[in-house]
Amino acid sequence: MGDITQEGISLSSVNATLYGVRAPLMDLIQQPETVDLRAERVVGTVVVSYKTLDARAPRGIRVKGGGNNTIQVTGELTVLGQKVPVTADMKVELDKGTLRITPASVKIAGGVPVPNPERLISFTVPIKELPLNLKLTKVTPTEEGLLVQGTASDVPLRS
Prior knowledge:
There is one protein chain. 11% of the residues lie in helices and 58% in strands. With 159 residues, the chain is mainly beta. It has one domain. The chain is elongated, with a radius of gyration of 20 Å. InterPro entries: DUF2993, TTHA0802/YceI-like_sf. This is DUF2993 domain-containing protein.
């Protein structure tokens, strides 16, 4: 399907596999423009790039790939007027059409105490109205970004 933008979020590598596509043969022959063409089930994926995640992250924070099913952020936080270097491993969770990105572990340089640093580096990315009405089911960090998987059923293939 190529790349798309939904609600300001760039999605790349959009792929879908359709199962159980059916249409009445006579309708396809006699009235192809009006036939009710549907897929019983669709499984699809999109990638949310790290560039897109950078744009959604708090000011001063950069996002990159991690390991062990996490992503990493680095940057500087301003705490009590001081810039403080920070790195964190972030976990990504699905929550009703939203990617929630929260720290699994945080390292703050210089030993500066920062109460609840997760509130300063957590962020969300809304992923709504995916192609073919896919509903989010899984998210996995990859080299290119977050691979988001979804499924749908009884999908009309004409608008």
